[in-house]
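ugh finaly. both done.
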Amino acid sequence: MTSMALMKPIKSFLTLVLVSLISCDAYSGGIRGLIKGDDGTALAFASVFVKQTAAGAATDINGRFELALPPGEYDILFQYLGYETQQQKVTVGSDFVEINVTLKTQVIVLQNVVVKAGKEDPAYTIMRKAIGKANYHTQQLDSYTAKVYIKGKGQLRDYPWFAKKAIEKEGITKDRVFISESVSEIKFTRPNKFEEKVIAVYTKGKDRNTSPNQFVFGSFYEPEIAEVVSPLSPKSFSYYKFEYLGSFKDNQFEISKIKVTPRSRGDNVFEGIIFIVEDWWSIHSLDMQTIKLGIKFKVKQIYNPIEDKAWLPISQQFFVEGKVFGFDFTGEYFATLKDYKIKLNPAMVVPEMKVIDAKIEKEEAKKIENLSASKGGKFSKKDQQLQERLASGKEVTNKELRQMMREYEKQEQKQTKEPEVLEERTFIVDSLAYKKDSVFWSEVRPVALSKQEERGYVITDSISAVEKQKEEGDTLRNKKGKKGFQLTDIIVGDSYKLSKTSDFRIHTPYGGFNTVEGFNLIYRTSYYKRWVIKDKKDSTKKARTSRLEISPIARYAFSRELLSGKLRVEYRNAGTRLTLEGGRYVEQYNSDEPIHSFVNTLTSLFSGDNWMKLYEQNFIDLKYRQRLNEKFTFHSSWSLSRRTELDNKSDYTFFSENREHYRPNAPVNIESQTGFETNTAFTGAIGLEARPWQKFVIRNGFKSRIQNSSPLLTLDYRKGFNSVLGSDVNFDLIEAGIRQQIKFGIRGTFDINVKAGKFLNADKLYFMDFKHFLGNKTPIITTDPVTGFRLMDYYLYSTKDQYLSVSAHYHFRKFLITRIPMIRLMGVQENFFVNYLATPSSKNYTEVGYGLDGILRIFRIEGAVSFTNGTYQDYGFRIGISSILSVNFGD
C-alpha cells in the first residue's frame, strides 16, 4: 500500500473525530424531559421557553422535549393553555439535565363581582382597556428579529368516488400525510415592513417548486386577520359578547380569562377564549376558532414578555378542517419563535401608563380629559407630544389612547417615503435551504417527528422516485406524464412542455348551438413563450415575466357548411399588453357578450328562445394597454372590419312545437331598425383609467394594488372614421364612469357602478356601433352581478344618443333569513340590488331585486321586478354563480 493510499483513511478518521469533538462541544448539554398534567396526561405541544436566550422548544405528542443549551444558568418556563405556568432555575453543564414537569390545572379565581340584570359584565372594562392599547402594542417596537421553525402537515381523509382513480394515480391515499418543515429568520421594522429569509426547508421528494411555509405576520392587535374581525378591533363590541370567567396568577402577572362569543355566528368572526395581562393590557394567550367558506380554522397562541418589555408570541398552532364537494381534509400548522431581539420605539417608552375605562370610571376619565385639554389637546409633533402626553400623570383613558395612537399612525404614515404603501414584505429562500442534512434538522426541531410524519416523508420519497423514472425520456411531454403526442389528445386536449420557457397546448374542443350556424365546433391551439427578467441590482426583487401567445382558432358552422377562424397574437409584460387579432368570425352585436354560448344553446334547444344575435366580420384588430404608473392606465384599440348581416340557417330544437318561438336574427330596438347592408368600418378608441386614492402592498420589491382601496374612474372616447380605408361610418362617443366597493366591516359590502355617455356625432353608424347594455332574458345569468341587468331585453334600449346607467348592489351578512344562525353557518348571504337605465327611449327603466348568495357555497338565486316610469312591467327569477366566487365565463 502506498503512503498516499494509507493517508486517505487516516485523514478521514481524523476529520470524523474532529467533527465529533466540535459537535460535542457545541451541543454538549441541555435539557430534556417529560411534561404532563396533574392528572398524569402527557401534554403534547407544551411550550418550553428559556428567558435568558429567548430560545424555545415544544413537546412531542408523547409530552417529551429536548433542547440543547451551552453551559450556564437558565430560567426555564413551562407553559400550556389551561395549566399554571411553571418556572425553574436550571444549571446546564456538559450533559443533558433531565427535567420532568407536572403542570397544575389552572385555578381560576372569580373576583368579588356580581353581574346583576342590566349591569355590564366586568369583561367589557378589561376588553375596552385592551382594545384601547391594541394600537400601542403594534407601535411599541421599532423593530424585532427572531428565528421561527414551522411545520405544516395535511391529510386528505376522504374523497368522492368519481375522483378516486385520478387521486390514487397521483399516489394520494387516505392514510398519507403531506408534511414540510422550514426554518426562517424574520425581521419587522416599523411601521409596516416584514422580511423573511428561509434558511432551511425539509420537504422530501423531487418537487422543489412547492413554496416553503411562510410565516404568517398577522396580529390579533390588528382590526382584522384574514378578513376575520379581531376581538381587539375597535368595532369588536358590535360583533362580540364578552364574559369574564375569572383570573389567575402567572408568575407576577395577573391574567384575566375572557370568553369571546359572536353576536351572530357565521363566517369571519372568532369564538373562544382570550387571556389578557392586567395593567399591560396585552395578550397572554388565546384559543380561538372561526369559519370561512365552510372551512373551520382554529388557532392557539402563547405569548411571553420578551426582555420584560413587550409580550410577543413564542408558540402558535393552527388547525384546519373542512369538507368541500366530498373532499374531506385536515391540516395542522405549528410554529415556534425564538432568539428574539427587540428595539423599543422611543415614543412608546412609558413604563407605568395606567389605562382608565372612560365608560365606567367616568369621574377619573373626566379629570384626565380636562388635563389633556389644558395641555393643548391634539398634538402636531407626533413623537414629542405623544410621549409628553403619555408621561403626564401616567394616566390616559382608553378612548383617548386609541385616538392618540390613530393620529400618531396617520402622521407617521405621511412621513414615510411611500405613504400609500400600507405593507411591505420581502420573502427569499436561501440557496442552501434545501440542502440541510438530518443532523441539522434533529438539532433545530423543537418537536420530534411522530411515526405518522416520518412515514409521510418516506411515502413522498418513494412516489417522487417513481415519478423521476417516468419523466426520464422524451422532451415533449404532456401534463398527464405520457410521452409525446397521443391521438386521443385531438379530442380531449392536452398541454406539452417544449422547453423550460415554452409550451404548446391543444384546447379541449367545444361548441354549441345557435340558429345562425346550427351546431358549431370551435377548435383552438396555443403556443406560449415566456421570458423571465431578473433584477441584477437587487436579487430580492420579484422577477418579471414577459409572455407571448400565438393562438389560431378555427370555427365550423354545420348549417352554414362554413369553416372560419381567426389568429390571435398577444404579448404581455409588466404593465403592458399588446394584442393583434384578425380573421373571419361571427360576433354578438354587443361586444361585451351579454349571453353566454352555453346558455343560448340550452334556451334554444329546450325552449326555442334564440336570444343570441350574431353578425359576421372580416377584420383585423389591434389593442394596446399600458399602465402609466400605479394609479393611471391608458388603453387604445383600433379596428378595420367588413361587416355582414346574417340570417337564421337552422330551426332545430329538441321539441318541434318550440320552432315557432324562434325569432329572426335581428335585434329589436325602440330607436332604430337594426338591419344593415354590408359595410366597412374603421374605428378607434382611447381611454384612461384612474385610481386616485389607490393603496399598495410591496412583495419582494414588486408593488401591487390593494383591491378596492380606491374608486375606479374611467374616461373613454370612441370614433368611427369616415372615408378612411374605405370606412362607411362617422360617429363620436364619449363616456365617463365610476365604480367603487365599500366594505362595512364584515356586516356588508356595497358596490356601485355609474356610467354616463353621449354620442357627440351620430352621422352614420350601424347597430353594432350603438351603445349596448348588459341585459338578460334567460333563467341563467352569467354577467357581472353588479353591472348586469336581470330582466332587461338585450338590445331594446340600445342607443345612439345620451345615456345614464346606475347599478347598486348591497351584500348583507345578516338581513332576513340570515338571522338564523344555521343559515349563516351554511355560508348563505343576502343581496339587495337596484339597476337603473336612462336613455331617450328607456322610460327610466328600473329593476329592484333580492337574492340569496352562497347556496351550497357556489350558487346564487335572485328575484327581480322591473318598472318603467314607476309602472310595473315584469318579474323573474335568476340563478347564477355566487358573487363570492370569481368565474370567467369567456371562451
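ok and the 2nd:
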Amino acid sequence: MAERVTPVMERALSRRRLLKSAGALVISFSLAACSRGEKQTAPPAGSPAAKAPASPTPASAVVATPTPWIPTNAVRSAIDDKSLDGWLAIAPDGTVTVYCGKVELGTGVRTALAQIVAEELSVPFERVEMVMGDTAATPDQGYTAGSKTLQVAGPVLQRAAAQAYALLLDLAAERLGAPKDQLVAEDGVIRVAGNDAAKVSYGELIGGKQFQQALREDVTVKPADQHRVVGQSIPRVDLPGKITGKPSYVQDLRLPGMLHGRVIRPAAIGARLLEVDESSVKDIPTLVKVVRNGNFLGVVAEREEDAIKAAKQLKATWEQVENLPAMEALRDFILSQPIAQDKEVARQGDVEAALAGAAVRLEATYQVPYQMHGSIGPSCAVADVRDGEATVYSSTQGVYPLRGALAQLLGLPEEKVRVIHVEGAGCYGHNGFDDVAADAALLSQAVGKPVRVQWMRHDEHGWEPKGPAMVIQVSGGLDGQGNVVAWDYAVWTPTHSTRPGKQAGNLLAGQLVDPPAPPAKNSNTGGDRNANHNYAFPNNRIIAHWLASSPLRQSALRSLGAFANVNAVEGFMDELAAAAKIDPVAFRLKYLTDPRAIDVLKAAAEKAGWESRPSPNPANGSGDVVRGRGVAYAQYEGEYAYVAAVAEVEVNRQSGEIRVPRVVVAHDCGIIVNPDGLKNQIEGNVIQGVSRMLKERVTFDRARVTSLDWSSYPILTFPEVPEVEIVLIDRPDQSPLGAGEPAISPVGASIANAFFDATGVRLREIPFTPDRVKAALA
C-alpha cells in the first residue's frame, strides 16, 4: 500500500483558525493560481462548428461572462460520442479543446479532468481547455452526480487522449521519417531522440483537422509511474475569477435586452390559484407582464427590484389546503405509509433462528428528517425563448435531461432547445437549479425576451426538493463470546431522485401549469444506498420498504440514502460493540475482510491517536462538559471509495450543545488525480456532515414548509468548523473513484458514536439539537 499524506498548503495560520477569526466569507487560495492567465479559446478551425447560432442569442452578445468557458462559440453541428472527434480537438496553436458532458459544480473536476488529458497527451496543463455541459457542443453523459465524474468521465477522456497521442505519433513518424520507438513527446512537441532539430508540434501535425477515427476501447494508457501531471496539486482553474470578483456564476450573467422575473408560489403545498388582481401592481413603473398559466404565477419587469416588488405586492387568492402530516408524528406517518415495493437487498443464513438463539439481542430505531441542500446563493437561471427556439443558461447537473424536460414544458422539439451549464452556488444533489430554469423559460416564452429569474431565500428554502426523511429499524444478536450471530435491517424510504429526467412533470413549474405536465415516472433509487454493509456476518438480512410517495417534494441530497443508512449501520455496530464490551475499532476489524477497508480504518485510528477501550468513556465523571471519541467506516455504495472517520466531541450537559473540535478522515478512492482537490472535497464533506448531524432539519406545519431562512434552518458557522486531519491512501494501480460524497456519511455516524462515548446515552434521531440532547440526558 502506498500511503501519501499531502498538506493542502503550508500555512502559519490554520484554515480553522482563519475561518474562526473571520466575520464574513473567507476563501483560501494559492497566489500561484491567480498568476496564471485565463483565456477563452474558440474551437479549432476545421472542427465541426456550426456557422449559424443555435438560438436567438447571438454569440457576439455583450455578456458579463460568468466564466471564461461559457461555450457560446462552441456550437458543433454534430456530436458523436462514438468518435474521437466528439471528445477532443487540437488547434493550429496546439491548444487542446476537450468536450465533456459532465459539469463543474465547485468540486474541481474541470481541473482534474484537464490533468488527465494533459497527462496522456504530454502537453502542458495550461494548454488544455475544457468545454463542459452544453447540449450544442458536448456529448450526453447524463448527470454530474453520485461521485461519478472522475470515475466515469475520467477513463473516457483518458482513452480519447491516449488514442489521439498514438495517432500523433504515427503522423510524426511519417513526417520525421523515424520509427515510433525513437520518438519522444513533451510539451506538445514530438522530436527524434538525440536529434533536437528533428521535431514537429501537434498543431503542425493535425491542428484544425479532424482525427476521423472511432473512439476505441483497446488503447494503451500511460503507466502510473510515468505520471507528471496526474497526482499533482495543480491549483483549480475556476478559482482565480471567483476570488478576484470576476463574473463567475449564472447569477452574474446579463444578456442584451434581458428582463427580470419572479414567481409567486402557492400559499400551501398543493393549493390551487383562485384569483389574481393585476391592478394591484399597476403602479410599478417597469412592470412588463403578469404571467399566469394555471397555478403558475409570475411577474416580469425591466428592473429586478421592480420584479421583487411586484411579486410581493401582487394580490392573489389561493385555495386553503392542509395536505401535510403533523411534523411531530413524522416517524409514525412514515411507518404507516403505503409501500410501493418491498425489496430484499441482501440475505445470508437464517436470521430469525439466529436471533432467537442469541445470548444478547438488541433493537434500535433510527430516524433522519427532511433536510435541505442549503445552497448559500439562491438558484438562478437565464432563458431566451423566442421564434420557436430556446437557449437556457443553468447550473443544472444534467444539461441533456433538463433540455428534454424544458422542451416538453415549452412545447418545442428537443433539437430547438439548447441548455448551457454555467456555474452556480455550490450544491451536492438536486436543489432548485432545474426548477428556476423552467421558471425563466416560461416567463421568457410569455414575453418573447430573455428573462433572468433568481429565487429569493424563501423560494429556495420553501420549494427546493428536499433530502427525504427516513426511518430505519435494526435488530442484532450476540453469542456468549460477544460475536455477532445475526443482523436484521429494514429501511423505510421514498425514492431519492425526482430529477427532471426529460420529464416536465418533475419540474415545479411543470406541476403548476394548465394542463399539468404528465406525471413523472420515477424509479425507486438511492434510499437503500449503503443499507447493506461490508461486514462478514453469518446471518444477515437487509430489506428496503419503498414508500409510494412523500409529503414533501423530495430528491437527491449529498450521498442520498447513505447518510441515514451509514448512521444506522455504524451506530448499531457501536451498540453491539458496547454490549460485547469490545473496543469499537477492534470490533469492526473482526468482521472486515477487504484489505482496503482494513487499511482505511487502521489509518484513521492511528492518525487520531485512538485509545483502545470499550465505550462509553469510563473517565467521564459528572462535570458539566464531557468528552468522547467515535469511529465509523463505510465503503460508498458498497463498491466504491473507502472512508473511515474519527470524531472528537465535547458535550455540555447543561446547555445541551455539542461541539466537534476535531475530525480525522482516512480516504481511499484509488488513484489520486489532484491531492489538494481531493482534500477540498473531504473537508467539505466533514463540514456538511457535522452541520447535518447537529443542526439541520426542515420544519413544516400542515400546509407548508416553515423553515424559510437561516434562523429557522441553521447551518454550521465558521467558528464551529472542526480541525480536519486527512490521510490520503493513494493507489496508482487502481481506477479513480469519486470523492464528492463518500466521506459525509461516516463523519456523521462518528459524531453519534462519539456522543455515546462521552455520555453513555445513545441518540438515534438527527439532528442532535440542544433540546434533544438535554431531553436524552435527563
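summary for the 2nd one i guess: The domain at 7-242 is CATH 3.30.365.10 (Aldehyde Oxidoreductase; domain 4).
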